[in-house]
Design brief:
Radius of gyration: 15 Å
Distance between the termini: 45 Å
Low-confidence stretches: 131-140
Strand order of the largest sheet: 1-2
Structural class: mainly alpha
Mean pLDDT: 87
Length: 140
């Protein structure tokens, strides 16, 4: 009974609703829509970090999801702590990778996941030996 009276939504409920509303998209489609075929690792690291921060499966994150906008439907993104998201991004990019907050100073408002991917691409060009590269992470 009390569960029906609460006014907030739990993270798993938010993720389930988001997944129902936003169909799965393959990594290949995501990278193509980002326009980052030449830096797939950057696009996929951003995708996975956005998903991890929002506690949803990465295949439900699309390049045109925006903040504020669609991303507000996810836990974490509903009260954005940009530094916490950057920590998720660094984890996805691999050990020893440092992301500077300044990489994102020129983001438009609102910004999209595609905008985040291009901001990362401008500063991070992984090599094949980079542990954060998509092939090494089970990506494309």
């Amino acid at each position: 009974m009390w569960e029906r009276l609460r006014w907030w939504r739990m993270a798993d409920e938010m993720a389930a609703d988001f997944a129902r509303k936003h169909p799965a998209q393959s990594d290949a489609e995501f990278v193509a829509e980002c326009g980052l075929a030449h830096n797939q690792a950057a696009a996929l690291a951003v995708r996975r970090s956005v998903a991890s921060y929002g506690m949803v499966a990465a295949d439900h994150i699309h390049p045109d999801h925006d903040y504020p906008g669609a991303l507000l439907e996810l836990s974490g993104w509903d009260s954005l702590d940009f530094l916490a998201w950057i920590i998720e991004l660094e984890r996805e990019m691999g050990p020893g990778t440092r992301v500077e907050r300044s990489w994102f100073h020129r983001l438009p408002s609102p910004f999209t996941v595609r905008d985040l991917a291009w901001a990362v691409h401008a500063h991070w060009q992984p090599t094949d030996a980079d542990p954060g590269a998509a092939a090494d992470r089970g990506g494309m």
